[in-house]
Amino acid sequence: MNKIPSNIMALASNTSNKRETVCIFGTGDFGRALGHKLIQCGYPVVFGSRSTQTSSLIPKDAEVLSHAEAAQKAAIIIIAIQRQHYNFLAPLAENLHGKVLVDISNNLKINQYPESNAEYLAQIVPGAKIVKAFNTVSAWALQSGTLDASRQVFVCGNDMEAKQMVMDIVRALGLTPLDQGSLLAAQEIENYPLKLFPMWKFPILLSLGLTTFFFFYCLIRDVIYPYIYENKDFSFFIAISIPNRICPILALILLALVYLPGVLAAIIQLYRGTKYRRFPDWLDKWMLCRKQLGLVALAFASLHVVYTLVIPIRSFVRWRIISYTVSQALNNKTEPLDTTNAWLSDSYLALGILGFFFFVLLGITSLPSVSNNVNWREFRFVQSKLGYLTLVLCTAHTLVYGGKWFLSPSSYRWYLPNAYMLSLIVPCIVLVVKFVLIFPCLDKPLMQIRQGWERNPQYSS
Amino acid sequence: MNKIPSNIMALASNTSNKRETVCIFGTGDFGRALGHKLIQCGYPVVFGSRSTQTSSLIPKDAEVLSHAEAAQKAAIIIIAIQRQHYNFLAPLAENLHGKVLVDISNNLKINQYPESNAEYLAQIVPGAKIVKAFNTVSAWALQSGTLDASRQVFVCGNDMEAKQMVMDIVRALGLTPLDQGSLLAAQEIENYPLKLFPMWKFPILLSLGLTTFFFFYCLIRDVIYPYIYENKDFSFFIAISIPNRICPILALILLALVYLPGVLAAIIQLYRGTKYRRFPDWLDKWMLCRKQLGLVALAFASLHVVYTLVIPIRSFVRWRIISYTVSQALNNKTEPLDTTNAWLSDSYLALGILGFFFFVLLGITSLPSVSNNVNWREFRFVQSKLGYLTLVLCTAHTLVYGGKWFLSPSSYRWYLPNAYMLSLIVPCIVLVVKFVLIFPCLDKPLMQIRQGWERNPQYSS
Amino acid sequence: MNKIPSNIMALASNTSNKRETVCIFGTGDFGRALGHKLIQCGYPVVFGSRSTQTSSLIPKDAEVLSHAEAAQKAAIIIIAIQRQHYNFLAPLAENLHGKVLVDISNNLKINQYPESNAEYLAQIVPGAKIVKAFNTVSAWALQSGTLDASRQVFVCGNDMEAKQMVMDIVRALGLTPLDQGSLLAAQEIENYPLKLFPMWKFPILLSLGLTTFFFFYCLIRDVIYPYIYENKDFSFFIAISIPNRICPILALILLALVYLPGVLAAIIQLYRGTKYRRFPDWLDKWMLCRKQLGLVALAFASLHVVYTLVIPIRSFVRWRIISYTVSQALNNKTEPLDTTNAWLSDSYLALGILGFFFFVLLGITSLPSVSNNVNWREFRFVQSKLGYLTLVLCTAHTLVYGGKWFLSPSSYRWYLPNAYMLSLIVPCIVLVVKFVLIFPCLDKPLMQIRQGWERNPQYSS
């Protein structure tokens, strides 16, 4: 956050004046919204329009002139026109010479045109100083003042002074300008507002798929099986018991999948004997969404914690404990304390609590503002040391939880093992391979490779 | 965070030297604190003072000269004097010509003077380059080195080079300069340190009011009523039971109040047929504090979760369950499992857990560092889609929780309905109206209006 | 976060071209990694190397020339060579005149050399414009594209234009340049990547020490004592019961230690009658790590909360309640509700919940992105008002929890008091001293001292 916090600004405008005139070409929605806002913030605004009669839509205090006349009145011209109509600017090139043209346009698709709109504009009006800005702000938000979302406005351009002038306007509107460098950045800036969580797609689809699979798996084992063989109606397990089985399973599998690509990369590098060849594409993409995978895993782990803590309040659990107590009282017997059982129960809970604790720590350090305050050495310490510790603790939690049932035949229903057994496969593989990779005979060459050493330098070029 | 993390810097100063001399006018508290710090960071410091004899208060290594002499020694002069005494600079105008004057003053009230102190200084010494800076840092923090709070120093000024020079000093002191643009921003910068959570006032006052009302409401129903009619002392309900009734009620009402203004705005726009007229003032203000309302609601929801999870540990609850079990054992009966009850209990818990989960997600995305990493499209997706999902889940949670009691006469005491019934009014209204607004016959014109279409363009100007 | 979110960039490069040639001196690991990345982002790259035959290691599309030839081809030269070999640049001084030299070197120890590597480079090649950059990025991360950690690149240098050119390259690589001012900042920038949580060392070591002490203390009282005198095996207490005793104790002590230095500082200032003398070194260091102490305390408090909520699920606790219920049923008696007990139990839970709630609030406001959005007045309000409120609530929670046992002789085993009694010493001292300091006769002079007043000004200079 590089700005005086937001909402305050939105109310406190109107106070300052003495601003320089700004010209806006185009009287469409965004042009008008921007004009309104600029006038509110004390800027004299001139609209450039083909016909000067559509004035009823335009803010009262703004002048409406022809394009050529309007351009003369201001040093900064905001082009609030769609890219398809940029051609009409070509004949105006003389009027626009030396002016700062602000390209605020967006496209409908990512990489819709070979060059960015701003670069296209620079080709059409070569004498002007093009600055890309404002495209990440919605007209509706600008209009209603409800800029709760990001107030960041990416700005790029080749002329430093022009960029500064535009950034001053951005600041005056209560927004935060972020210099993104030269006009070459325009393509990226134009693609930015079109994205919808691109890095989250794979983790979320994967977890949806796994959730569906494990839901039906547990439904068969825990609801349908007892209904058929014991004629018991446990359909209400769908609300809490089954989700509380799926959540820890997904948390564990996804957490293991965060560390699997790193292990695979190490194997590939050891095999190739160099770090200077690119990984296969799927591995590259997998590595880039590890953070998102981890956060989805954390979400499932958190749900698991709440579902577990809620257990003693559930009316079914209360009923079960009360019936058990009553039956003991009626049978006139008191069971002695089973210390082994107490050990098992307490230690799987303790392992789970510690695992969750470190998992949350990992989550907090992945907050942008925290990870920005951490250097590379610290980040690696947290993400790899603490990360593996979390994985070990969570795997141990699951192992101790299910320990007693592993070999019991009653835990197989229709030959289906308990779901948590399936969840142990990936984490155990990751931990075993990682354990092998720690051995000096493998760790040393790997370190050398990562420091730039190559086994067969002659082949690598 | 645009700086090498903080505390490290504070210890590691003294290392560098070769700095340019800085002159400070005024030997008051802030002047001296700044002088100390500048000397620590290797800057030669000259104080300009009316009398050069108050030297005992001044850092040892600093020179104290008359204003005119001191001004000659440095290119940058920090004006550590109150605005009322700026007049004395007028006769020095010649000595100050071309110098960078840093205005660090603050006022006692918001918008105390028509123009900012920095602009006033610029009028008095027109030949100097005025830069506003340092006013957001406390002298005490500067002195003690305990800058745990924000290290951000807002800087503004019309001369780019002067601003750069001041920003370099700011950086050298271990602080983070933030360019706020031209001197017009000075007013806002001077108001900034005077504010005390202005956006939080309404949500906090509202929730305090509602809390008080519901506290006495529940006190009457749950403590006074049973005391009078059944002579039972449930006064200890004040500690947990009643707070755990108030918290979910407030969370639900406040969450609904986050979405109510959006719904009202839609109705107003549909009625007016344009988006280009301002909303009434109260609606504008309400919309600007929606984020804060939501976060207060989240705080209440979190308290509700902890209060609920703590239930089985409460000695009262343990006593109640044990007595019930003992009475069952003594009566020699075991109740069978009531599946409907198990369904109801599990599903209201599950709805609550999911509602809370999405609520926390909303809270995390409203962290500044997260919302800055999200574009407008993603932000709208999260805040409106996930937001309404949360509201639906939480309302359903409350409905299922109380479902069985709605029509039972025993739930009315002194004709007062259960408190949670009152809490359902606002969310149900919001959800019903929102549901109506989704219908195409209303949604389509609304979309058009928000894209700039106007029903009666001739009237709008 | 000042950049278009990260990972997207890493995939979307290659699109732009027309970049200016960059020259890299040195074909070591970092040089090659940087070369690879620059080529990927569309920069023509020329390597300067002693022998032009090691070309097999070098990216295919890069040219390899002698140093002098390579330098001629580009305006920017990245010096990917270790400081010890900088001497070889002296004879090239003429070729490097007016060029931008980017120093990317790191050292092995903090403050290894009297001057920074960048300043040393400036001495060797006085005609060049030296810019420090890229040293905070790891070659491995650059190579693999997995820059999940901080993407911040600290940049400093005396020439504004040179700095801008380097910052544009940084941006083009998908990283975030942060201007740190003049070349004097280079020392700090070079030390930065060598640090490993320097501020966390003391809090973590302290809490490890205290944890060990209290672990054995509780082990003796709760496991060994009953084993010897009652021959009961409570060894499973190690998993949950003992941690759940240690965590709240440490949370309370560490929280009190956050506020102790402030209280000590006030006493010292009152005694000395001035704020302008430095505190003893240990107090300075203690004050600088208060935030970290508080966060460690919060971690222990969170663990305590989860350990406590898990209680009713523990098999030992279930066994104990069931046996108790059964024994009551067998003895045919039902105990009436003990209202005092219900009050005590509910109120210590309520105090704990509220204390934890405010503690979490404090933790959230200490997130960098939140504390940056808060001015000094708001920060002091939160950290001191809410902080003391938290301390009071947590101390009261502990007092009410143990209230009934304080004077009971059965709570002393081997003359050892219950561990929580020890934990009350520091917080009670802090609260009592703070309470005394609030009295006007002490508060007024303290305020005056903190506003710059001195009791004996003649002695202070």
Describe it:
Chains A, B, C: Belongs to the STEAP family. Chains A, B, C: This is STEA4 Metalloreductase. Chains A, B, C: It is found in: Endosome membrane. 3 copies of one chain form a homotrimer. By secondary structure, chain A is of the alpha/beta class. The first copy, chain A, folds into 2 domains: 22-194, NAD(P)-binding Rossmann-like Domain (Rossmann fold, 3-Layer(aba) Sandwich), CATH 3.40.50.720; 200-330 and 338-451. Chain A contains 20 helices and 8 strands. Chain A has helices at residues 6-12, 29-40, 67-72, 93-96, 117-124, 139-144, 160-172, 186-191, 201-229, 243-272, 281-288, 290-309, 315-330, 339-365, 368-371, 376-402, 419-423, 425-438, 440-450, 457-460, and strands spanning 22-25, 45-48, 63-65, 76-79, 100-103, 129-132, 152-157, 176-179. An 8-stranded mixed β-sheet of chain A has the order 3-2-1-4-5-6-7-8, with helices on both faces. In chain A, helix 4 links the parallel strand 4 and strand 5 (100-103). In chain A, helix 10 (243-272) crosses helix 16 (376-402) and helix 14 (339-365) packs antiparallel against helix 16. The longest helix of chain A has 30 residues, at 243-272. The radius of gyration of chain A is 31 Å and the shape is elongated. The two termini of chain A are 44 Å apart. The model of chain A is unreliable at 1-17 (pLDDT under 50). Chains in contact: A-B, A-C, B-C. The interface between A and C is large, with 87 and 83 residues.
Structural class given helices, strands, pairing of chain A?
A: alpha/beta
Average the pLDDT over all residues of chain A and give the rounded result.
85
Helix fraction bin of chain A:
55-70%
Listing every helix as H and every strand as E from the N terminus to the C terminus, the arrangement of chain A reads HEHEEHEHEHEHEHEHHHHHHHHHHHHH
Record field, number of beta strands of chain A: 8
Count of DSSP H/I helices of chain A: 20
The Cα radius of gyration of chain A reads: 31 Å
Global morphology of chain A: elongated
β-strand percent of chain A reads 5-15%
Q: Describe the strand arrangement of the main beta sheet of chain A, using strand numbers.
A: 3-2-1-4-5-6-7-8
Distance between the termini of chain A: 44 Å
Biggest pleated-sheet summary of chain A:
8 strands, mixed
Greatest interface? A-B, 85 and 87 residues
Low-confidence stretches of chain A: 1-17
The quaternary organization reads as homotrimer
